[in-house]
From TrEMBL, chain A:
It is a multi-pass membrane protein. The keyword Membrane applies. Its main location: membrane. Keywords: Cell membrane, Membrane, Transmembrane, Transmembrane helix. It holds the Pfam family BPD_transp_2. The keyword Membrane applies. CDD domains: TM_PBP1_transp_TpRbsC_like (cd06580). This is ABC transporter permease. PANTHER family: ABC TRANSPORTER PERMEASE PROTEIN (PTHR43370:SF2), SUGAR ABC TRANSPORTER INTEGRAL MEMBRANE PROTEIN-RELATED (PTHR43370). It is found in: Cell membrane. It comes from Tistrella bauzanensis. The lineage of its organism: Bacteria, Pseudomonadati, Pseudomonadota, Alphaproteobacteria, Geminicoccales. The chain crosses the membrane at residues 6-25, 37-58, 64-85, 97-115, 146-168, 198-217, 223-242, 249-266, 278-295.
From TrEMBL, chain B:
PANTHER family: ABC TRANSPORTER, PERMEASE PROTEIN, GUANOSINE ABC TRANSPORTER PERMEASE PROTEIN NUPP. It comes from the Bacteria. The keyword Transmembrane helix applies. This is ABC transporter permease. The chain crosses the membrane at residues 12-36, 56-79, 91-109, 115-136, 145-163, 196-214, 243-264, 284-310, 322-342. Pfam families: BPD_transp_2.
Length: 313, 349
């Protein structure tokens, strides 16, 4: 296939948007946490838990949206734990986050094995159906791309706008940015630094979990071990790439997904002339390159990873 | 309620911290055992029996502890200098790959030099893998947590590429595994008819050497100074960048040695399922040891016995084996919390 033809095909961009969806949720979630000054390395585990809880809820007879909601609640609870350890207690956000990832991942596997002890092929559920035809069908090209998406992808896109609006246009968003930049000043204004940070981590973690649930309830229809496969860590790189801005986070996720989609097609085009592992490495190599390029002018939230204790410097 | 820094931490409290943390972790995990319908005493009994109950059990636990000591030391050394090396898993595989590569290459080395060459190759490979992120950190300000994490995936894919390609053992019936190390490149068995091998000696020697380095040498002092306050260290004329790079080489090298220990001691060849997460396990070990090099020995024994014991527990009472990972993760979080309360006291108002 001609490369230009490939680049403008609606099929490619429909795939890109699908691959990008969990990354959009995860990156937005991490962005919210970091904007409030809390690095959340629990993301990989929270996404795993979201994938498991969402899937399990639907498998036990729940509605698909109930599955999404259950994942969000599970994520929020883990966020509460991460927040409790890192915000009022001020523990190392790096090590705590890793612990959270280990805990959430192993709890997911434990629960999965407990409920389904002797199953070799993972049982499947009926996932979200593609949107298909609607008023958007009349749009040329874009109609085709939209028709192949499922509802959670649209939710992800709406959330990008919502998060941007809240962060830059509402007092709540101002409070979040303030506790991430200058907690002492926020405290002097009467803002509860602890409260805002806790809430931000809980909301952010809920987003991450929904990203995981997208994988089991839309992209695939079953839960597999290691199914997050590093997507969470990539979201952390994407937040830096996005300079902590929701719009750029969407752009980063799409760009990343584009290379991911291209990678599978290039693999087919080269017909096995190169080891497939080289293509699989691409996303990770690109993430590191993106970090190197962006870190030079990265405007980290000033209080990121700095615990705030009233009256202590 | 607020936290107030203690002026000094009494010795008894420092010693109580790991004990209290582990007790809490076992208590919390007991809830999961109850949920899965097993009896807690029976389950923990089976676990202890599986980890220490026989000569075989003890050697299995020690075999598991060896790589954990090395990855634990890797984390402890790096964390002391506030280099957040989360890439232990990748460095382990990098070390193992280099070890197998040197060990099976037609270099014509005399037998006596083969094992030292293999060990050195593994350590250098691990060190170089962490040097990259450390340079990116010191030169460009790229957060090393993300780069070391992402490198894990890159290294694993590279290993996969090598053992399915140029290093694939043609005798492995199509199974992706590397060529087997020659006998002269293998670490000796310590006890016949068990899997316990010289990797344990390697790990213990490393722990003692790192302890001496940290407490008795200028570099050890500089490392601790950089970790305690990079600004103050720079102010007093230390080159924090140089210290960081040395720390990276040492930390990565230790994790690489864990890979050497596994291929040259246990398996003889390299596969992709060689490590059940020794990299992240090392982080837990280091925290349980409160970053003390000799404490790492105890921490590694603890984590290894949880993993070995959990297999036995799972067989005996039917609790999913993932309980081991839960227990280890909860231990880490409890340990972090307990360490905090050793440094701070809770005050009303």
């Amino acid at each position: 296939m001609d490369i230009i033809e490939l680049l403008i095909s609606a099929g490619l961009w429909a795939t890109v948007l699908r691959i990008a969806t969990p990354l959009i949720f995860g990156t937005l979630g991490e962005l919210i946490c970091e904007r409030a000054g809390v690095l959340n390395l629990g993301i990989e585990g929270i996404m795993t838990l979201g994938a498991m809880v969402g899937w399990m809820t639907v498998y036990q007879g729940g509605d698909l949206w109930v599955g999404i909601a259950a994942a969000a609640v599970a994520g929020m609870l883990v966020g509460l734990l991460h927040g409790a350890l890192t915000v009022p207690l001020g523990l190392s956000q790096h090590v705590t986050g890793l612990g959270i990832t280990m805990l959430a991942t192993s709890l997911s596997y434990f629960a999965y094995r407990l409920l389904l002890p002797q199953i070799s092929t993972p049982p499947s559920v009926d996932p979200f159906a593609p949107l298909g035809d609607g008023w958007w069908s009349s749009l040329p090209w874009l109609g085709q791309v939209i028709g192949q998406q499922t509802a959670p992808t649209i939710l992800a896109l709406v959330l990008v706008l919502a998060v941007a609006w809240v962060l830059y246009r509402t007092p709540a968003g101002l409070a979040v940015r303030m506790v991430g930049e200058n907690p002492a000043a926020a405290d002097a204004q009467g803002i509860s630094v602890t409260g805002v940070r806790m809430l931000a981590v809980m909301v952010g973690s809920a987003f991450m979990a929904v990203g995981g649930a997208f994988l089991t309830l839309s992209a695939f229809n079953a839960f597999f071990f290691n199914m997050i496969g590093g997507r969470g860590w990539i979201c952390i790189a994407l937040v830096v790439f996005a300079s902590w801005r929701p719009g750029k986070a969407l752009l980063g996720a799409l760009l990343f997904a584009f290379f991911d989609a291209l990678q599978t097609r290039l693999q087919q085009m080269t017909g096995g002339a190169l080891p497939y592992q080289l293509f699989l490495m691409l996303p990770y190599v690109l993430s590191i390159l993106a970090l190197v390029v962006m870190s030079r002018r990265a405007a980290y939230p000033q209080a990121l990873m700095v615990p705030f204790r009233k009256g202590e410097r | 309620m607020r936290l107030e820094r203690r002026t000094e931490t009494p010795a008894w409290l420092s010693l109580l911290v790991p004990v209290a943390a582990l007790a809490a972790a076992f208590a919390i995990s007991a809830v999961l055992i109850l949920i899965s319908g097993a009896s807690v005493p029976a389950a923990y009994g089976a676990m202890a029996d599986g980890a220490f109950g026989s000569r075989f059990a003890i050697t299995e636990t020690l075999t598991r502890a060896a790589p954990l000591m090395l990855t634990g030391l890797a984390a402890a050394v790096a964390f002391r200098a506030r280099l957040w090396n989360i890439g232990g898993e990748g460095q382990l595989y990098g070390g193992a790959l280099a070890a197998v590569w040197i060990g099976t290459a037609p270099l014509g080395l005399p037998d006596a030099l083969l094992l030292p060459a293999v060990i050195l190759a593994g350590a250098i490979a691990g060190g170089l893998l962490l040097l990259g992120p450390a340079v990116l950190k010191t030169r460009f300000g790229v957060d090393e947590v993300v780069t070391t994490l992402l490198l894990n995936f890159i290294v694993l894919l590279f290993v996969s590429m090598m053992i399915e390609g140029p290093m694939k053992d043609p005798m492995a019936m199509g199974w992706p595994q590397s060529d087997t190390l020659p006998m002269a490149a293998e670490l000796p068995r310590l006890i016949p008819r068990t899997r316990l091998h010289g990797g344990l000696i390697l790990a213990l020697v490393a722990a003692v050497l790192i302890y001496i380095m940290m407490t008795r040498t200028v570099l050890g002092f500089e490392m601790r100074a950089v970790g305690a306050s990079p600004r103050a260290a720079r102010f007093s004329g230390m080159s924090t960048g140089r210290v960081m790079l040395l720390v990276a080489l040492i930390s990565g090298g230790l994790a690489g040695l864990a890979g050497v220990s596994e291929v040259a001691g246990r398996t003889g060849y390299l596969t992709l399922d060689m490590s059940p997460g020794y990299g992240t396990g090392g982080v837990v070990v280091a925290m349980l040891a409160q970053l003390h090099p000799l404490g790492v020995i105890l921490g590694a024994l603890m984590v290894a016995s949880i993993f070995v014991g959990a297999d036995a527990m799972s067989r005996a009472v039917g609790v999913p084996t993932y309980i081991a990972d839960v227990l280890v993760a909860v231990s880490l979080l409890c340990m972090l919390t307990a360490m905090l309360f050793a440094r701070y006291r809770l005050r009303r108002g």
